[in-house]
């Protein structure tokens, strides 16, 4: 459970996987059809995969994630609300990184014999994600919080996605991760007075890891053309873009905005620029992207904020589960209605020759 009494060094809240509060925006853990992934034919793109492997082997951030002297101090002087917003950020980010680690590691193990080149790249990506999760995990005690990752991995429910959906979802989550980290880095480089905790100075190199991961996921999509051709690809591109974008929007605006404000950012501006950059870049991977210049896109997301806040409040309440579920229904229906309309909005075809 996430702490609500942050400013006491004697109380170290434990987030152990069993007492953890879940929201509809809590990061998920994924599993897939490993046999189908193992039998993927990559011969037409063998050289691209070999080049990608060399990039990962170079291990540019081997010595990057080391806590230096700047961490060796108390952070209790920070406002209790800021400390709580850091806990929410750290818990969400660490869980996402750890979820990536588990998935990539499992793929690497299962593909090792039958698709060794792809398996080795996944293994090196899991190395990166383990570093990221570990580094965030080490920051938690600075805010009197602990997350037991080994217990979390055993108690989490896993969601099954077929391989092509894993590639869509991981491509987007890696690229959005890249843009999130780089935009925070750029903001704090321009406004160093807001760098109130040393974790942020690691973001510039960190985001390059996520960028490489995203490029590899793009290669996985491109090397299996059926993944990105035809009406189904159009449908799933829309679906994943909208799901990932709406999740980030609602998470950041409704749950994490105090974190961004604590480091001097305008949350709405930040979300808008991250989504626009990720959408623009996704045209290199998907046959179409969303029209984020259409004001209706932002208006409909804004309409989802109130029902989302109501759902989050109910989730945190002490009501019995059945009452929570019942009371959430009207808000969930309102959000579903907006999502449907967003899904049906006119999309923007990717320029030909960019994606393939
Ligand atoms: Fe990562
Ligand atoms: Fe990553």
Distance between the termini: 45 Å
Strand elements, count: 6
Question: What is the gyration radius calculated from CA atoms?
Answer: 20 Å
- Pattern of helices and strands: EEHHHHEHEHHHHHEHHE
* CATH level-1 class of the largest domain: Mainly Alpha
CATH topology (level 3) name of the largest domain = Ferritin
Low-pLDDT stretches are 1-13, 15-25
Strand proportion, as a percent range, falls in under 5%
Shape: globular
Q: Specify the biggest β-sheet.
A: 2 strands, parallel
Strand order of the largest sheet: 1-3
**Helix-strand makeup class:** mainly alpha
- Which second-level CATH architecture of the largest domain applies? Up-down Bundle
Number of helices: 12
> Which small-molecule ligands are present, each listed once?
fe (ii) ion
Mean pLDDT: 90
Characterization of the model:
By secondary structure, the protein is mainly alpha-helical. Helices cover 62% and strands 4% of the residues. It has helices at residues 34-38, 46-58, 80-111, 116-139, 149-155, 163-190, 203-222, 230-255, 257-262, 267-282, 295-316, 321-343, and strands spanning 14-15, 29-31, 146-147, 158-160, 288-289, 348-349. The longest helix is centred in the first third of the chain and has 32 residues, at 80-111. Residues 97, 100, 129, 132, 209-210 line the site of one fe (ii) ion.
What is the gist of this entry?
With 356 residues, the protein is mainly alpha-helical. The protein has helices spanning 34-38, 46-58, 80-111, 116-139, 149-155, 163-190, 203-222, 230-255, 257-262, 267-282, 295-316, 321-343, and strands at 14-15, 29-31, 146-147, 158-160, 288-289, 348-349.
């Amino acid at each position: 459970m996430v702490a609500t009494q942050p400013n006491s060094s004697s109380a170290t809240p434990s987030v152990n996987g069993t007492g953890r509060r879940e929201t509809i925006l809590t990061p998920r853990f994924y599993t897939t059809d490993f046999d189908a992934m193992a039998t993927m034919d990559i011969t037409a793109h063998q050289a691209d995969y070999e080049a990608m492997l060399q990039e990962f082997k170079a291990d540019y951030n081997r010595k990057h994630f080391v806590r230096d002297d700047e961490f060796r101090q108390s952070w209790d002087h920070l406002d209790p609300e800021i400390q709580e917003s850091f806990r929410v950020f750290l818990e969400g980010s660490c869980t996402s990184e750890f979820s990536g680690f588990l998935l990539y590691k499992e793929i690497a193990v299962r593909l090792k014999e039958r698709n060794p080149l792809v398996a080795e790249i996944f293994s090196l990506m899991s190395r990166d994600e383990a570093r990221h999760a570990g580094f965030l995990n080490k920051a938690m005690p600075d805010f009197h919080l602990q997350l037991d990752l080994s217990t979390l991995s055993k108690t989490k429910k896993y969601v099954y996605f077929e391989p092509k959906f894993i590639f869509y979802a991981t491509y987007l989550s890696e690229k959005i991760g890249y843009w999130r980290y780089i935009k925070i880095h750029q903001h704090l480089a321009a406004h160093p007075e807001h760098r109130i905790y040393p974790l942020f100075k690691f973001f510039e190199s960190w985001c390059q890891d996520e960028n490489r991961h995203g490029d590899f996921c793009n290669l996985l999509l491109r090397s299996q053309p059926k993944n990105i051709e035809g009406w189904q690809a159009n449908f799933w591109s829309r679906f994943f873009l909208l799901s990932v974008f709406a999740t980030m929007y609602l998470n950041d605006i409704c749950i994490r905005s105090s974190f961004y404000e604590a480091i001097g950012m305008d949350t709405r501006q930040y979300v808008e620029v991250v989504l626009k950059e990720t959408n623009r870049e996704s045209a290199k991977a998907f046959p179409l992207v969303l029209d984020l210049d259409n004001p209706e896109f932002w208006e409909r997301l804004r309409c989802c904020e109130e029902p989302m806040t109501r759902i989050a409040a109910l989730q945190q309440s002490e009501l019995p589960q059945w009452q929570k579920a019942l009371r959430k229904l009207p808000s969930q229906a309102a959000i579903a209605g907006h999502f449907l309309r967003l899904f049906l909005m006119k999309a923007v075809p990717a320029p030909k020759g960019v994606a393939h």
